[in-house]
Amino acid sequence: MISVQGLTKSYGATHAVRDLSFSVDRGEVIGFLGPNGAGKSTTMKILSGYLPADEGEVRIAGFDILSQSLKARSRIGYLPENVPLYPEMRVSEYLRYRAALKGVRSRRITEKVEDALELCSVSHVRKQLIGTLSKGYRQRVGLADALVNEPDILILDEPTIGLDPGQIREVRELIKGLAKRHTILLSSHILSEVEMTCSRVLIINKGRIVATGTPAELRERSGIPLSGSVRMEIQTANQKAAEAVLAILQSLEVIDFASIPEATPSAASGWTRYEIVPASSASLTRDPRPALFDEAVRRGWKLRELSAHESSLEEIFTTFVNRIPAAPEKKSATQEPFKS
């Protein structure tokens, strides 16, 4: 549904996007991630037809965004970071106006507006002035605007910016519902939201794609170890027994270090929690839980918990952004070498 090849955009001497290439298939929900200034918003503006690219090709549902701009844009619903609403208009009035601008046939405008109002849960404020709505409801109206012409593709730039936790949860559920009917490209700084919502992630840094894949694939390729992420709870009779178990755990080759958190009073509770750092040797499995379980069975330990904390998308994001440096600037074809 979206095909980008060799996309480049500069503002003077500053390269916002450099030779960017990626594709989004029908029905995918893609998280578009990157630090501030990475080129996310510039890319989204080019995809939606708001900005021209300096070089490269963008095709939306098979249509070229430059030579077939009207056909391409008719397939897109775009929610920019700062939603440009008219505060003096009523919600339904605004959506009818936007539907007409987007080429919805006059006899179908009422139907499309009603569908968008219902889908975004703003039917009950249809007669309210937009300027009197809360930030969350204005975001919903902006999303209804993006949906009113039933586009194939939704491009959402920071759709939850400025919302409180309750509003973020509502918008997240709304986006999940929209994913059943639309291809979605979503930019957000709330990485937990991306992980819960998106089927695939693109990470951009300094105008270039540095990683792409599902959260699980990126976690695997990031090389982040499970250090400090394994927790084990064992029934122990007293502090001495807990320390004896600790000594055994520390002797196992599958772990580098084991400790008993100070907050675990083994004598009082009858259970001791151990925090375990897996071995970092490449010859060993990264997940020590099978070996730990076998050891517990062999020694007759009673287990209440054996769990691993996977690296978060935030850790993965930071790893890829910091790992790959920006490409060197290309010299202009007309640039002459300095001569003394």
Kindly describe this structure.
It is a single chain. The protein is of the alpha/beta class. The protein folds into two domains: 2-222, P-loop containing nucleotide triphosphate hydrolases (Rossmann fold); 230-309, Alpha-Beta Plaits. Helix content is 34%, strand content 25%. The strands form three sheets. The protein has a six-stranded mixed β-sheet, sandwiched between helices. The chain has a four-stranded antiparallel β-sheet with strand order 2-1-4-5. A four-stranded antiparallel β-sheet has the order 12-13-11-14. A hairpin with a 2-residue loop joins strand 1 (2-11) and strand 2 (14-24). The chain is elongated and about 80 Å long.
Give a concise summary.
The protein is an alpha/beta fold and 340 residues long.
Structural class: alpha/beta
Total count of strands = 14
List the uncertain runs. 325-340
Beta-strand proportion: 25-35%
CATH second-level architecture of the largest domain: 3-Layer(aba) Sandwich
Number of helices: 12
Distance from first to last alpha carbon? 53 Å
Please give the radius of gyration in angstroms: 26 Å
CATH superfamily of the largest domain: P-loop containing nucleotide triphosphate hydrolases
Strand order of the largest sheet: 6-7-8-3-9-10
- Compressed to H and E, one letter per element, the order equals EEEHEEHEHHHEHEHEEHEHEHEHEH
Number of domains: 2
Helix content: 25-40%
Shape: elongated
Q: What is the typical, i.e. mean, pLDDT?
A: 83
Major sheet: size, sense and barrel closure? 6 strands, mixed
Please identify the top-level CATH class of the largest domain. Answer: Alpha Beta
User: The CATH topology of the largest domain is what?
Assistant: Rossmann fold
